[in-house]
Amino acid sequence: MVRVSEAIEDDHRKLETYYNIIVNSTDEDEQTRYQNQFTWELARHAVAEELVVFPAIEKYVPGGSAKTDDDRREHHSIREMLDVFQDLNASDPSFIPTITLLMEGLARHMRDEETNDLVRLEESVTSEESEKLAQSLNRTKMFVPSRAHPSDPDKPMYATAAGLLTAPLDHLQDIFRKWPEEDTNEPWME
């Protein structure tokens, strides 16, 4: 079984991989495909984390509420930048600078999560609880929006309701987006 920290770190490594492909490619079609993949992965990851992991940190980690308040603010800032990036054309001169700036903030956030938040969470829960959180995180990603919606509420109850309304529209639009060709299943099919 996978622990919650491993599931989150796996998502982080995927985001880094997609970012590296985008900035190192000179093929606009490939950049567009990985732009969609990056957006899809980050949007789903952020919302699922807010709905599953943040409440666990608040419940199990001493001082967790203050930390998740900071993390929610960081997520909101990241979603605002993702909202700009997800709609840019790969030929736009601001395409690479925008994802680079986005990734700088995201990389700081991921490092902090991996070295602080997740360590403290794993120390505060049993292996079984951690595995259940990982399962819940991955299940939740199937039902949340696949695009950034920074105007959606940040409170878990309201975010869930907003996500249930926006996710079907995002998933429908995903059918018509370009995706990396080496994936046998389009992301929207997961």
UniProtKB/TrEMBL annotation:
From the record, give the transmembrane residue ranges: none
**Where does the signal sequence lie?**
none
Q: Which domain of life is it from?
A: Eukaryota
Domain Hemerythrin-like span(s) in chain numbering? 5-115
Classification via InterPro entries: Hemerythrin-like (IPR012312)
Please name the Gene3D superfamilies in this protein's record: nmb1532 protein domain like
Which PANTHER family does this entry report, sorted A to Z?
HHE DOMAIN PROTEIN (AFU_ORTHOLOGUE AFUA_4G00730)
Descriptive protein name: Hemerythrin-like domain-containing protein
Q: Which organism is it from?
A: Penicillium bovifimosum
Q: What is the lineage of its organism?
A: Eukaryota, Fungi, Dikarya, Ascomycota, Pezizomycotina
